[in-house]
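Q: Here's a chain of 224 amino acids. Please give me its 3D structure as tokens.
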Amino acid sequence: MTTTNLALMPDFMDPLHLIGSFGTWALVGILVVVFVESGVLFPILPGDSLLFVAGMLAAGTAAQGEAVTANFQLWQLLLFIPIAAILGGQVGYFIGRTIGTSMFKPDARVLKQKYLDEAHAFFEQRGPFAIVIARFVPIVRTLAPITAGAAQMRYAAFTFFNVLGALVWGVGLVLLGYWLGSFEIIQKLLEPIFILIVLASVAPMAWEWYKRRRAAKRAAEQAS
């Protein structure tokens, strides 16, 4: 296979490059990324595509010819990735619970006060299951545990849905990559698949943004 890199993607966002850079510490590196992205204030990491590629590598398929040799097995991914995701979410919750409200400010770049206000409405509309949904949305999956903690969501409820979301997200994407990695066509089309994963991940955010914009426009028209 020929080596291909996602030219428009920063190295730390390219899952193949990231895993390859970890070398013999590939499994540990993947777990650290999952832990951090699950609630520890660094939301820009390749969570979804990283798990998908890890599953492919566990199946013994090096996509697009990238010289990455997996030193981990499927059972290790299925066991340790959900654990790392759960722990990251729990840490994020306690960050939000202990200092979260002071972190949210009206003029902040990331932790805006409006996010906290919207979290209350979001949880009221969807209930605690919103924590599961957030797992599949980049940035949101990092901020959701912090927001839940700051919003004083019940710890028992958060823990249950955090565990459920981590299992569905971590196990599901790894198994999807492991299964699809056995098809040669998937290996050849990995770059478009990455793009589809990103688009599918940000679609809920784009839809929520569109709804808020439409509601604000409607309110402005009614006020005029």
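Q: Can you summarize the key feature?
A: The two ends are 62 Å apart (CA to CA).
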